[in-house]
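Late entry, evening session. Most of the bench is empty. Finally got around to the prediction I had been postponing all week. Sequence below, unchanged from the version circulated by S.P.
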Amino acid sequence: MPYIATANRKTPALLIYLLDCSGSMNEPDIKLADGSSATRMSVALKAIEDIIIRMIQLSTRGTAISPRYRIGVFAYTSQVIDILGGIKSIDEVAQLGIPDLEAQNLTNTEAAFLKAEQVLQAEIPRLDPGSPAPLICHMTDGEITMGGDPSPVAERIMQMAVPDGRVLIENIFVGPSAHLLRHPTIEAKDWSGLTSSDELVDEYARRLFNMSSPLPDGYRTVMHEMGYRGLQAGARMMFAGNDQALLKMAFAMSSATPTR
């Protein structure tokens, strides 16, 4: 059965984050737990920070941080920016931290996926055969404004494989739920996930659904252990909505590689 390899010092998980930093990410329409709102960018960055803290906690034994995860973070607008300066181990990320990102105007999603493909072509041959399948976590809030269709690149990426399975792609579409989903989302802890593109209203969101990998059982088990027990078999690694709890859940999935 694929996707059963565990993340540890010898076989660290490779995670690549692609973050849309277009100007619309400054829209203050993400609902917070207290009923107030915050910008899409600020909530997304907080969710990423929380998940990196979780990965550090999972990697810490005593006072030492084991290199259980290897991470790349790439922001994109009209060009792709390497935030960390290459792929870094989680102990290096703990020292560097995640800097603030500045939203700009244009969105070249194809360039971001081409960069991820380039990184994977370099990294996969170096992986231990027992390593977990790499994962790309892509966050965006709307249509591309330059460049081509990222779908063919994403399809090539999802054909890349290691012994544990093919490369996984997770997509997070940030925006007003009423504009994306046919049915309102329920509490994140109870959400069953998306199993069909027909559940989505937005045409670009449907494209992202088709660019998203099926959720592996091992990931679903870890998500259940984290309290997200509604996720069902057959769901895609795709999230859509404007709720802080749902965004937190989406980024939590990126760190759900089995660790034992």
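Two things to note before I forget:
The two ends are 16 Å apart (CA to CA).
The longest strand covers residues 13-20.
Will write this up properly tomorrow.
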